[in-house]
Write a structure and sequence with these properties.
480 residues, Cytochrome p450, 56% helix, four-stranded mixed beta sheet, 17 helices, three-stranded antiparallel beta sheet, alpha+beta, binds protoporphyrin IX containing FE
Length: 480
């Protein structure tokens, strides 16, 4: 790993081509984390100008993400990498009061979206996608189709609108291209100097992709919002953002004339669309890949979903024991689906690396790390760590269905797919509700199987999404 990092460090920034080559080298190296967890409690690499540490020691993890989170803000490199896409949106911001304020606005807007709305929208759109897949009668390109579906769900539930099919396809293509190029490790190799990092971002060619994506978001979501005040019940997130944008001025301002505020709204809408779709699409893609090779898991889920939906269809004449049976059926199906998503989140956390930087010199496990160094907490390595999990690389949803939770869960930081501390994911509940609804429709009515084609690898750049658009057979389940 050290050798590859130093080779990539020498190539990165020389030209656009060399930068892309360096990105490929690093990504390939990171893929080897699959099945071979980097298990040392603390790994420190000396980079050309600084240091990079990976912490698996749970006390160190706590210090970094929670206890002393103020000393270890999100790395500014991440902000530079995401800026062409999300501008000054909350996700990329290192820390401080501005982030607290942005998170408050984001959370206030998010809690306006009722869970029933997320479930209703997710179920309806999943049924529409399934019908479309059946009409086409071809193996389904799972990662890109799930990306389109989850963008539609997040935008419909929060903004009351969707991309057209052509725009959705283009958006997904662009985002995949962005992912392939945006490699945080390359920025770390370049050191902390803002000008060097900026030059590297330019060599990655992210500006043009980001600009086209932002133009699509502006056209489809921001412009209609500015023209038409959104209904709070159809577009709860957008309505809350508009309120926040108008607040603090004492007068109702015309957003149409206020470019700075429009840009701030565009930034947060971009964060909502990107953080809110890619993560769930990636987890579900990996889950379907695993399930396609586990027909018994699919059958069990389908049976429980069918029993639960019989209960849902009960009329008012049902007696107490029938009503109880319906409630129990619903709970059993929900528990089964939660076990599937938990196991996929454990094995394939979409944000595999949480990147922080040191604002002062520190020492962890008696190893000094310089100020301006980088520290990484990796949900990927923690959630596959042999000291914490039994059979860590095996896809085994049953571990979440036993009477007792897995022993690793005695450690609260052994499973952190949504992060931890003041920057923890605000969309956790949204994601859980959405994933349950999608799976319930999909596994309740269809059977999935692998065809030909190699196993996907995690991309290993911004997220751990599959590195190619693998296809699965999705066929309707017969009755019974
Ligand atoms: C399976 C689904 C998801 C996973 C695994 C996930 C994971 C994460 C993680 C690990 C972080 C923290 C990154 C860090 O500390 O460096 C994060 C941040 C964030 N997530 Fe999620 N996320 C998911 C879905 C969502 C959804 C559905 C939304 C919105 C509806 C969302 C919105 C955000 C936002 C806005 C942030 C940035 C918060 C901040 O910077 O303070 N996420 N997510």
């Amino acid at each position: 790993m050290g050798l590859i990092l130093s080779l990539a460090g020498r190539l990165a920034g020389r030209s656009a081509l060399m930068t892309r080559l360096a990105g490929r080298l690093v990504a390939r190296e990171l893929r080897h984390l699959k099945g071979k967890p980097v298990e040392r409690q603390l790994l420190v690499y000396d980079l050309p100008e600084t240091q990079l540490a990976l912490a698996n020691d749970l006390r160190v993890v706590d210090t970094l993400l929670s206890d002393r989170a103020g000393t270890f803000p999100k790395a500014a490199a991440l902000e530079r990498l995401l800026r062409p896409l999300v501008g000054g949106g909350v996700f990329g911001q290192p820390g401080g009061d501005a982030v607290k304020q942005a998170r408050r606005i984001f959370l206030r807007a998010l809690v306006r979206i009722p869970e029933q709305r997320v479930t209703g929208v997710a179920r309806e759109l999943t049924r529409a996608y399934l019908a479309d897949w059946q009409r086409q009668g071809q193996p389904v390109a799972i990662p890109s189709e799930l990306s389109r579906l989850t963008i539609d769900i997040v935008s419909e539930a929060s903004l009351g609108g969707r991309f057209s099919a052509a725009e959705g396809k283009r958006f997904v293509e662009l985002f995949f291209a962005y992912h392939q190029r945006a490699n945080p490790v390359l920025l770390l190799l370049g050191g902390q100097a803002p000008a060097t990092q900026q030059a590297l971002v330019e060599r990655m060619g992210l500006a043009a992709i980001g600009a086209e994506m932002r133009a699509l978001i502006r056209q489809r979501f921001l412009v209609p919002l500015l023209e038409d005040r959104p209904l709070a019940e159809r577009a709860p997130f957008a309505a809350a953002l508009l309120e926040a944008a108008a607040m603090g001025r004492g007068v109702e301002v015309s957003l149409a004339q206020d470019e700075a505020r429009q840009t701030a709204m565009l930034d947060e809408i971009a964060v909502m669309l990107l953080a809110g779709h890619e993560t769930t699409a990636s987890v579900l893609s990996w889950l379907l890949w695993e399930l396609a090779d586990a027909p018994q898991e699919q059958d069990t889920a389908a049976r429980l979903i069918a029993a639960a939906s019989l209960g849902e269809g009960q009329n008012g004449d049902a007696d107490a024991s029938q009503q109880q049976a319906a409630v129990d059926g619903g709970k059993a199906a929900a528990r089964q689906l939660a076990a599937l998503t938990q196991e996929a989140l454990r094995l394939y956390p979409p944000i595999a690396f949480l990147l922080r930087e040191t604002t002062a010199a520190v020492s962890f496990r008696e190893r000094p790390i310089c100020a301006g160094g980088f520290v990484v907490v990796s949900p990927w390595t923690l959630q596959r760590h042999r000291a914490l999990w039994s059979a860590p690389d095996r896809f085994d949803p049953g571990r979440w269905l036993a009477a007792e939770p897995p022993p690793a869960m005695a450690e609260r930081l052994a499973m952190i797919p949504f992060g931890y501390g003041p920057r923890v994911c605000p969309g956790k509940r949204f994601a859980e509700v959405e994933m349950q609804a999608i799976l319930s429709e999909l596994l309740g009515s269809c059977h999935i199987a692998r065809g030909r084609g190699r196993a996907p690898n995690p991309l290993g750049t911004l997220t751990s999404r599959p590195d190619y658009d693998f296809r699965l057979q999705v066929t309707p389940r017969g009755p019974g």
